[in-house]
Specification:
The protein has 144 residues and is mainly α. It has one domain (17-137). It has six helices and no strands. Helix 2 (14-35) packs antiparallel against helix 4.
Length: 144
């Protein structure tokens, strides 16, 4: 059983598909904001960011750019930490379940903790990437 699971999870492309799933909401969000920039500006205004347009542009670049770093493997750790930090900040901004009446709390509280799970996923991606780089650097040093 263990070997069957191992062979399934070690299929070529499985890791990339998992990373794509982790980044999917950010790709969708960034592309959606870029396609409807007025809605992106309205979202920034809703959360009190001014001037709204530069903040909307920054979020679009962050969501798409960091996702591309993760998927390409180029500075994957940096992209993962950027999306993790962004998600943590946005979670405390948008999912303040402690500020809503108890009868409205359930869904917002769930969303808050789901987003913390995403943050943990991004930290694990960064950790794994940095560990791998450290291992490769140590291997090169030992060969010299």
């Amino acid at each position: 059983m263990r070997e069957s699971l191992r062979s399934l999870f070690c299929l070529p492309g499985a890791r990339w598909i998992a990373l794509l799933c982790l980044c999917a909401a950010y790709l969708q969000g960034g592309i959606g904001k870029a396609m409807d920039f007025d809605a992106a500006i309205a979202e920034m205004q809703h959360f009190g960011f001014a001037p709204a347009a530069p903040f909307a542009i920054a979020v679009i670049i962050l969501e798409i750019g960091a996702s591309m770093l993760i998927l390409s493997g180029l500075y994957r750790w940096a992209g993962a930490l950027a999306l993790g930090g962004f998600t943590l900040f946005a979670t405390f901004l948008a999912n303040r379940f402690w500020d809503v009446p108890p009868d409205e709390r359930f869904m917002i509280e769930n969303s808050f903790f789901e987003h913390l799970g995403l943050v943990g996923g991004f930290v694990l991606v960064a950790w794994h990437d940095l560990q791998k780089q450290g291992f490769e650097a140590n291997s090169r040093e030992k060969k010299l």
